[in-house]
Design goal:
Bound molecules: adenosine-5'-triphosphate, magnesium ion
Helix content of chain B: over 70%
Shape of chain A: globular
Strand content of chain B: under 5%
Strand order of the largest sheet of chain A: 6-7-8-3-9-10
Number of domains of chain B: 2
CATH superfamily of one domain in chain A: P-loop containing nucleotide triphosphate hydrolases
Largest sheet of chain A: 6 strands, mixed
Number of strands of chain B: 0
Number of helices of chain A: 10
Number of helices of chain B: 10
Oligomer: heterodimer
Order of helices and strands of chain A: EEEHEEHEHHHEHEHEEHHH
Largest interface: A-B, 27 and 25 residues
Distance between the termini of chain A: 69 Å
Radius of gyration of chain A: 20 Å
Largest sheet of chain B: none
Chain lengths: ~290, ~260
């Protein structure tokens, strides 16, 4: 009795050719209490795309990503990943799907008790019979990709925030996933490293043919990598899709909310300041 | 068997019973494929949870040996029955105080550490990262700790019993004019094998309670550093509570029913 997925990607599976729908979200609702953080979200991602999800802080991007990777059961709606509805799967079936994608967490989520090298090696060790000398080589390669050559033996606590994020990305890429989910991979990085990480995302999609679903609100980076963009709203439009389209369509979209976000302006329809009487009411209570 | 294992691995939810079911599914699987039990991780945990608790456990056991001998000498001395002190020390250690006190030391030292460690990993999204990589946290985090404690607590208990007996011996020799040979013969001859076994059965049950409660509390942490603190406290409180309840139940079972 051996562990089900011994070899990486063993077992019958459909290979998705560029342009086929690899991820489809239908009427996704995620509510916490009576607050709907995601409200009837539907979209599709095709194989080979770099799909960017953007939106203001707290609008539900991480929540959406958590639903997509099966870390959270949505309140309602369906998510078809590789053609199978993951919202109806039990943990055992989910594991089979999880071998096919990688997730780069917003805050790295590195294992604090393992070195950087061991962090990246863990999925390889666990899911394959690959020789440890080869694993060591793969680890070196992945670290080189994210510009961290020679940091194998560092502990995560000895790294800066940006370095941790890059280790997280290297770990997500360890099993050469078919889909890379990446939660704000470039926030906290300097412009050069941002470009490196963007290039990496592009390489994994354009060269290897994988698909990337990236959360980002760094506009330069978004327009550099995206083949399609989904903009989630916040405030009064919490949980709804504000716009969806190619970078060109997003640039031309006249929606003032979207334009304020794209240009990064403080004044606009995104409500940051309350009107004076509203503010007073808020401070003093309704009475 | 494979069917049972796979069925258990499909169980959802994070309840205490589910956690136990998952642990047992991996142990069952481990019978045919020892790799599942991560021997190297288990060994590391045996050292951390078990071996490093030795000094503290010895100190406590030694003190208990002292206390038992001294307390009993005041009353038994009045009856001129000091000769029974070795019997009393060894019986109470083997049957009751050894398993109980060592378990309580391990709760405070290792149970709380496990709860805090797993809790911090939970807060840090490490547990979630494992799940997303299709690596079962139960398998690589819980099972090695479970095995380590199930093996180490009985061993610590036997060790603690010996140290406690030595403590009793020191009092008897030092203050009661007993000869070493008298003490040793009595302390070793009086208990039957069953007295030792009943104590060891208790310590196995305690180990199960300590580690499952600690892991359950640790993996259930919500709400940041404060949550970790709460889980650590809860794991200690509930472990001690359930250990004492289980102790009462087992003592009743061993000495009245069996
Ligand atoms: N477990 C939870 N319980 C209750 N509310 C939650 C929970 N998780 C997220 N939320 C709420 O959902 C909203 C969206 O959170 P999310 O983390 O998805 O934001 P985000 O878009 O990723 O923001 P950021 O860009 O700052 O990372 C937040 O307002 C938050 O309060
Ligand atoms: Mg986020």
């Amino acid at each position: 009795m051996r562990e089900a997925p011994r070899k990486i990607g063993s077992g019958p599976k459909k290979i998705f050719k560029a342009g086929e729908i690899i991820l489809e979200v239908r009427d996704l609702v995620q509510a916490f209490g009576d607050r709907r953080v995601l409200d009837n979200i539907s979209f599709q991602v095709r194989a080979g795309e770099t799909f960017v999800i953007m939106g203001g802080s707290g609008c539900g991007k991480t929540t959406l990503l958590r639903c997509l990777i099966g870390a959270q059961k949505p309140t309602s709606g369906s998510i078809h990943l590789f053609g199978e509805d993951i919202t109806r799967m039990d943990p055992f079936e989910l594991d089979r799907i999880r071998l096919r994608f990688g997730m780069n967490f917003q805050f790295g989520a590195l294992f604090q008790s393992l070195t950087v090298g061991e962090n990246i090696a863990l999925p390889l060790r666990h899911h394959s019979d690959v020789d440890s000398s080869i694993i060591e080589m793969i680890v070196k390669m992945k670290l080189e990709l994210v510009g961290l050559t020679g940091f194998e033996n560092f502990m995560p606590s000895e790294l800066s925030g940006g370095m941790r994020k890059r280790v997280g990305l290297a770990r997500a890429l360890a099993l050469d996933p078919e889909i890379l989910f990446s939660d704000e991979p470039t926030s906290g990085l300097d412009p050069v490293m941002t470009a490196v990480v963007d290039q990496l995302t592009l390489d994994s999609t354009r060269k290897i043919g994988a698909t990337a679903v990236v959360v980002s609100h760094d506009m330069t980076s978004v327009f550099r990598i995206a083949t399609r963009i989904l903009m989630l709203g916040n405030g009064p439009r919490q949980g709804q899709i504000v716009a969806e389209g190619t970078p060109e369509e997003i640039r031309k979209n006249p929606d003032p909310f979207l334009q304020q976000f794209v240009r990064g302006e403080a004044d606009g329809p995104i409500p940051l300041r309350m009107a004076q009487d509203e503010y007073l009411k808020h401070l003093l209570g309704d009475g | 068997m494979k069917f049972v294992v796979n069925a258990l691995r499909r169980v959802e939810g994070d309840g205490y019973v589910t956690l136990n079911a998952r642990i047992y599914s991996f142990l069952l699987w481990g019978l045919t494929n020892p790799r599942v039990l991560s021997p190297s991780l288990t060994l590391r945990q045996m050292i951390r949870i078990g071996v490093e608790a030795l000094p503290m456990a010895s100190l406590v056991a030694l003190s208990v040996g002292f206390i038992l001998a001294m307390q009993s000498s005041t009353e038994l001395g009045k009856l001129g029955a000091n000769a029974f002190i070795p019997d009393l020390v060894s019986l109470s250690l083997l049957r009751e105080l050894g398993p109980l006190l060592i378990a309580i030391i391990v709760v405070g030292r290792s149970g709380s550490a496990v709860a805090a460690e797993l809790g911090t990993m939970k807060v840090n999204e490490e547990i979630e990262a494992l799940k997303v990589m299709a690596i079962s946290p139960t398998r690589i985090l819980v099972v090695p700790r479970y095995l380590a404690l199930m093996i180490m607590l009985p061993i610590l208990t036997v060790f603690g019993n010996c140290v406690g007996l030595a403590g009793g011996w020191a009092v008897c020799i030092g203050t009661l004019d007993m000869t070493s040979s008298f003490y040793i013969t009595h302390a070793v001859q009086r208990p039957e094998l069953w007295d030792l076994y009943s104590g060891l059965i208790k310590s196995v049950v305690f180990a199960h309670l300590i580690i499952t409660i600690a892991c359950y509390q640790g993996l259930g942490v919500t709400g940041g550093a404060e949550g970790v603190g709460r889980a650590t406290t809860a794991s200690v409180v509930y472990s001690i509570l359930w250990i004492i309840i289980a102790d009462a139940a087992l003592t009743g079972l061993f000495f009245f029913v069996l």
